[in-house]
Structure formats: C-alpha cells, structure tokens
Amino acid sequence: MTTHNYSSVVKDIKKRLSTWDYSKAKERAKTGETASREDLINDFLAILGFKRENDDLRYEYSITVKEKKRKADIVILDGKAKSPLVIIECKRSDETLTVKHLDQLILYLAALPESKMGILTNGLDYQFYLKDNNGSNTTPFISFNIESIDDLTLQKLAVFHRNNFNFNELKSMAEEFYFVERFERALADELNTPSSDVLKSLYKRMDGKRFDEKTALRLRELFNSFSLQAAVDKLRESESRNSKLGIVTTQEELKAYSVIRTILATSGKLKAGEIDRISYRDFKGHFSIIVDDSQNKSVCTLILAGKKSIRLGAQSRDLDDPIEISLAQFKKEIIETTLEYLRK
Predict the structure, then answer these.
(1) Could you report the per-residue pLDDT of 150-164, keeping only the tens digit for each?
(2) Is 66 domain-assigned?
(3) Which of 3, 64, 199, 253 has its CA 20 to 30 A from that of 88?
(4) Which domain holds residue 94?
C-alpha cells in the first residue's frame, strides 16, 4: 500500500462531485460520442486529477489494429515513459454499454502492448478492466454510475486519482477481485452441479462404504439452498472456535453483529427478507458487516481488539464501551449504507 492520504482524496472527489452540475451536459452528450467525451467524460477525469494541461491525456490516439489504422478515444500516458497506460473507450451517454463495446476495448488493449488497463464508459456508467494477456477479464473490477457512487467506489477511485496513481496497487486490487470472483464462480458452479469427485469425497467423510449411482443421486438431491445454509452456519461456528486459522470470531464481534442487525431490523426501512441478506466476514485484525455475502458490499468494518473503531466509507471513528451504545451513535450511517447496497 502507498502512504497517500486516501481519506482526504475521497473527501475531495466527493466534494467535487456534489458541486458538479452535469444535468445539461448529460443532455448535450446524447448527440454523440464526441459530445459525451467533451461534456461528461473530460469533466469527470478532471475530478480525478487528469486534465488536458497536465499533458498525460491523448485524444484520438492512433493505433494499428489488424493492419488498419484506428483511433482510441482517450489514452492516459505513463508519467515517465509517456507510453499508453490506460485506454478509455467512449460511447454516447444514451447508449448502453455492451459486450460488443468491451470487445472493441479488448482489441485496442491487445494492439498496444504497453497498455495495462482499459476503461469503458458512456460518460455516466464506468467499467474498469485490468488487461489480461489471455483476454479472460470480461468483468470490471470497478463499476459504477456517476449518479450513484458509493463510498467503497470512492475509495477505489482515490487509488486511481492522478495524485495517487500507482498501477501496481491498482493491479493488486484488481487481481484480488478477480481471484475471489473466480473462486466464488467456481464454488457456485460446483454447488449447482457437484462433480463425482466432490460427491465421493463427501460420502467418504460420511463414513460411507460403497459409492454408486444411487448414492450419487441421493447426495445431489441434498445440494440445495437449505442444506447449504445449514452447512454455512456450522462452518461459521467452526471458524469462531478454530484458532489455528489465525482468525477467532470473538463474542464481542458477534455482539456487534447482533447489535447492527437489530439496528437495521428495528429501523422500519428494510423490506421483508432483506435482513437475511446481512452477514459478516471475519478477517485477521478486522470484522466486516456485509450485504449479500459480498466483499464489495461492506456496510462497515470494525476493529474491536485494542483501540476500538468503526470504519464507515473512508471515515474511521473511535468506539467506546459498552459497544452497543457506542454503535448506536452511527445508526443513521449504518442504515443508509445498508439500504444503498440492498436496493442496487
């Protein structure tokens, strides 16, 4: 990690966004890609520190794709080498971003070996992609609409900000996102259609003796959301007791989780069933309350060992004992952030 003060950068981005009246620009941008770039995209890049006068932007950047001359809409240059680092493919603001547009961006990235990252945007929606030589990264590791940017996205954009820009840190962020995404996709696929190897391994743990098609069929029938949820509950109990993992879910962390769920459940703002989408992830050194079991939907992060604190977005606040009273001070922020993720 770098030593930049991301909190101040997040605050600056948020302030600039709040004073940016883009409603008229949004209408003008509907006339074409050039208008979207001039009236929306340039202003947003300026909020992130990338301005024409800084000499690190190039427009209509010439590239050769399959022996044909093409032009990338915008390229951000490497500060030292002045080589193309980030390619930005722009579309008109009333055009929905599609796989076809992404294929065009990937084609441009492949044509510029020095490039490391691509951004696809219509001036309102932004999708950030890490370049993969295998061409397999088709999911954005940062994705947002400028009209509804949450605090977690602002923290990521602070790393991209020109004053902080560190490609290695962005790459690390993206690779962690893609690794977790591939794991979760693979796990979901396995749970949806369990392989014979997995079934055999499970049956062996059940002290089963003879594995056959009848047994396999019975096991497959047990792969449903109810039995999997029961297994997850047992796993959480095991993790809380297993100090060998280096992660121990303490009673105080579980109390904090219970307090936050109570705050949400009694707010009157959650719809039926939404409270069941709130869970937690315990990490070494911190404890996160999350929505939809997603690391990208963190309501807040708690540190309850030593000096206690809660991080809401980019802001870190101290916590005192008793924890339930201290957490209640942040009721408004907790509810607002949770609703933001629940209603996306």
Answers:
(1) 777 888 898 899 988
(2) yes
(3) 3
(4) 6-173
